[in-house]
UniProtKB/TrEMBL annotation:
Pfam families: AMP-binding (PF00501). It comes from Rubus idaeus (Raspberry). This is 4-coumarate--CoA ligase. Its EC number is 6.2.1.12. Gene3D superfamilies: 3.40.50.980. Residues 1-146 form the AMP-dependent synthetase/ligase domain. Residues 1-19 form the signal peptide. The lineage of its organism: Eukaryota, Viridiplantae, Streptophyta, Embryophyta, Tracheophyta. Its cofactor is Mg(2+). It catalyses: (E)-4-coumarate + ATP + H(+) = (E)-4-coumaroyl-AMP + diphosphate; (E)-4-coumarate + ATP + CoA = (E)-4-coumaroyl-CoA + AMP + diphosphate; (E)-4-coumaroyl-AMP + CoA = (E)-4-coumaroyl-CoA + AMP + H(+). GO terms for molecular function: 4-coumarate-CoA ligase activity; ATP binding. Keywords: ATP-binding, Ligase, Nucleotide-binding, Signal.
């Protein structure tokens, strides 16, 4: 579901952030507010951590099991919708696509803005088989952003 949500959000020109499920409701609320979240996708077991964030500006969606209450959407509403109904959006390579949060080792966690261009560049560097500076073997581990 994460891949579908991420790709769907990026296709619509939105950005995606992920919260640590071990965060307290207050920590999740802080990240949701700072990132200006419009939709929170969660598992039913974490619903209680985010239920107080539901309002006109922020919708909640559960991935598994029936939604805990009528105001909560179900992930199937996204997966079963018609992709042709999505409006065309102009997306710049410099638009933010992902907003992972730092661990906050030197202070409070902060959103790290990753652009479409940066993400594509990062992936390209890892998969470009023509790069003479990359020598991969089956024992190698590649560390990359996102």
């Amino acid at each position: 579901e994460f891949v579908f949500a991420f790709l769907g959000a990026s296709f619509c020109g939105a950005m995606m952030t992920a919260a640590n499920p071990f965060f307290t409701p207050a920590e999740i609320a802080k990240q949701a507010k700072a990132s200006k979240a419009k939709l929170i996708i969660t598992f039913a077991c974490y619903y209680d951590k985010v239920k107080d964030l539901s309002c006109d500006e922020v919708k909640l969606m559960c991935i598994d099991s029936p939604p805990p209450d009528s105001s909560c959407l179900h992930f199937s509403e996204l997966t079963q919708s018609d992709e042709n109904d999505v409006p065309d959006v102009d997306i710049s390579p410099d638009d933010v696509v992902a907003l992972p949060y730092s661990s906050g080792t030197t202070g409070l966690p902060k959103g790290v803005m990753l652009t479409h261009k940066g993400l594509v560049t990062s992936v390209s560097q890892q998969v470009d088989g023509e790069n003479p500076n990359l020598y991969y073997s089956s024992d190698d581990v590649v560390l990359c952003v996102l």
